[in-house]
Amino acid sequence: MGLFDIFRRKRHQDEQEEVKPTPTEDPATEESAEVDQAQDATPTENPQDGSAQSVDSSKAERLKSESAVENHVDRSANEGDTVVENEESSTTTESRVDETSSSQEDGESITESAEEEASSTEPVNSASADKTSEEKYDVGLEKSRNGFGARLNKFLANFRHVDEDFFEDLEDLMIESDVGYDMAMKLSDSLREEVKLQNAKSKQDVSNVIIQKMVELYDDAGQDEQTGINFAQSGPTVIMFVGVNGAGKTTTIGKMAARFKNEGKKVLLAAADTFRAGATEQLDVWAKRDGVDIVTGPENGDPAAVVFDGVKKAKAEGYDVLFVDTAGRLQNKVNLMNELAKMKRILTREIPDAPHEVLLVLDATTGQNALSQAKLFKESTDVTGIVLTKLDGTARGGIVLAIRNELHLPVKFVGLGEKVTDLQEFDASEFVYGLFKGLVTTTD
Prior knowledge:
By secondary structure, the chain is an alpha/beta fold. Among the domains are: 133-221, SRP54, nucleotide-binding domain (Four Helix Bundle (Hemerythrin (Met), subunit A)), CATH 1.20.120; 237-427, Rossmann fold, CATH 3.40.50. 59% of the residues lie in helices and 9% in strands. It has helices spanning 3-18, 27-41, 50-99, 102-120, 133-140, 142-157, 164-176, 181-192, 195-198, 203-221, 249-262, 279-290, 303-316, 333-350, 368-380, 399-407, 428-436, and strands spanning 237-242, 267-271, 293-295, 321-325, 357-363, 385-389, 411-415, 423-425. It has an eight-stranded mixed sheet with strand order 3-2-4-1-5-6-7-8, with helices on both faces. It is elongated, with a radius of gyration of 30 Å.
């Protein structure tokens, strides 16, 4: 069964749910319930001493009020002295802070930032943590769905008939939706000979045909795609994470480490991004939060040495998974790629099949820039899959279609929120449904 067939089936089920009549209660039952509620809400009072109770209550309230006012006056006077002292102390403190070195400020800021970031993604025992995968995709892709839907509706508002202008406007729509130039051209070319489009009687028919063709092209481009993690047959599974600074590599490692640990795996982290200020500290915060071990090196030290120590420890102490964080200084492309190549040589020397995965972490909010980054990394290192972060914070979810169509790399994980549990294994059918739900109608 193709992706669009799955999509239509799920959409049909939702439409059936939407038209189900809402159950109504018997009017007599509702009236009886209202009477009971009114009786429960009416306060009862002893007829003999009700007046006395009211007077005593009033007197007590007045005494309380007077006492509160006196306490407030005394407290205000004391606070006035304290405020003056605090202001003087604050002035002294500020002057001392100005005299401290900028490097100390940066270090403290980075550590606090790492702790805050880890705290912000802390899992909580709430209903949101118990959402199903479908619900997470639905919420995480809401901005992308609404953005694409608004552009599609604007496009259809000008629709009169299928002609050359129609296809030019459609290509513009696709490019604006971050599905990529190649995908836009393929879609336009395939629709030119689409009989259903030529016979479309309404704007909704046109919308259905466009989305169906997009899903079919996406499905075709992903034949034989492996979206699961390639685990080692024996010994530690080594997963390298690459990507530019700011894409979310360290946070992704922290969330994935928590995920694998909860699955019963013994996890080790290697902090090989030794040149970015605060990178090791940030990963260390995650290691403590997740309750996993970490191998670190000196600041500005050799990243390959950290990798060597990490893989030695993973083999000797029976770890199931080794996560390797790497630098992301794309502006120093040659040096960066040389570093990555050196790390891979060390891993392969110690474990012949390692690394088992090289995951490229991309920030979905950057749209087509993410696609450009993916092309550069793919040219320089053997990327095996994509982790697409921050999908919930952008209207550019169409980038997933471009990645598959142009790079032929599987998206393996997606970030659909800030919580640890919001890092989800990629599910193409859930993604397609979350992106286009509500934009297609089905018929029996």
